[in-house]
Design a protein that fits this description.
Elements lengths: L9 E2 L3 E5 L4 E6 L4 E6 L14 E3 L2 E5 L3 E4 L6 E5 L9 E5 L2 E5 L5 E3 L5 E3 L11 E3 L2 E4 L6 E5 L10 E6 L11 E3 L2 E5 L4 E6 L5 E6 L12 E3 L2 E5 L4 E6 L6 E6 L9 E2 L2 E2 L1
Antiparallel strand pairs: 1-2, 2-3, 3-4, 5-6, 6-7, 7-8, 9-10, 10-11, 11-12, 13-14, 14-15, 15-16, 17-18, 18-19, 19-20, 21-22, 22-23, 23-24, 25-26
Length: about 270
């Protein structure tokens, strides 16, 4: 299921950074010239590494076994934080003017020096949390879905819980998406749940019946359309809104990754 190039690269528009399932990280320029490559850490997750690198405070963040901040242009280690690793990718928030890295298992790490500011503010076992307008959303099967508002101060780093809900108890490999007051999440078994982003109340639930296979690709928003992809190649496009409206259903190659959009094209 998990390959050696599961993690998505990250770019600043001039360089591209990647991490591979063997623990090797690297940097290339946009002409394909390798600037550096080095062993970061040996992944220890039983099913392989999948957390993508992120950029924060001018640093390259690699979360393999512990969290490491590297100099983007040299690969030199700048700091290391003893933060347990999950499969999802961290998100970067700004609190009191300071970049803070939020991990899927709810750690808050200050990007400037690697200080751990908080723990267990939420949980995503397999996917990534979503940050929208100062609110973090966690969709998980082992704990309730949770929405927390980030603080305005770094110390103490105390989040405000807005709501918790349990729309469907199943694994969420796919990360959710938030749009126009609704958060959408899909289970590995194709059950789509739409919740009110302010209250956590269930707006609707829909079985997308995508055939044999599981949903790993995160829900993706394009305009007012949301795209769900099953690893058997089935793609469902539905309209954002308070009722389910299917727009299209396509058959693609097998896929566990997320599409990206450039103009009016999807790749």
């Amino acid at each position: 299921v998990n390959g050696y190039a599961t993690a998505t690269p990250v770019s600043d528009g001039q360089h591209v950074w990647a991490i591979f399932g063997n623990g090797i990280g690297c940097c290339y320029d946009l002409q394909g010239n390798r600037l550096w490559a080095r062993f970061i850490q040996k992944p220890r997750n039983a099913w392989g590494h999948s957390a993508s690198p992120v950029l924060a405070d001018g640093k390259l963040i690699m979360h393999v076994t512990t969290m490491q901040a590297l100099d983007p242009l040299t690969g030199e280690l700048l700091w290391e934080a003893n933060v347990p690793m999950y499969w999802g990718t961290p998100v970067v928030a700004e609190v009191a003017g300071t970049p803070v890295i939020i991990t899927p298992n709810g750690y808050a790490v200050r990007a400037t020096d690697g200080a751990i500011l908080a723990q267990k503010i939420g949980n995503c076992t397999y996917a990534a949390p979503v940050l929208y307008q100062g609110v973090l959303y966690f969709a998980d099967d082992q704990q309730d879905w949770r929405a927390v508002r980030l603080p305005t101060t770094l110390e103490p780093f105390t989040v405000q819980e807005l709501w918790h809900a349990r729309p469907r108890k199943d694994r969420y490999y796919s990360s959710p998406v938030v749009h126009d007051g609704i958060i959408y999440g899909i289970t590995r078994a194709h059950i789509l749940s739409a919740l009110d982003a302010a209250t956590g109340e269930l707006v609707y639930e829909q079985n997308l019946t995508m055939g044999q296979g599981e949903c790993y690709s995160s829900l993706t928003l394009a305009g007012d359309r949301i795209i769900a992809i099953c690893d058997n190649g089935t793609m469902v496009v539905f309209a954002a809104g308070r009722t389910y409206q299917e727009i299209a259903r396509n058959t693609l190659d097998t896929c566990r990754a997320c599409p990206v959009f450039v103009g009016d094209r999807m790749y």
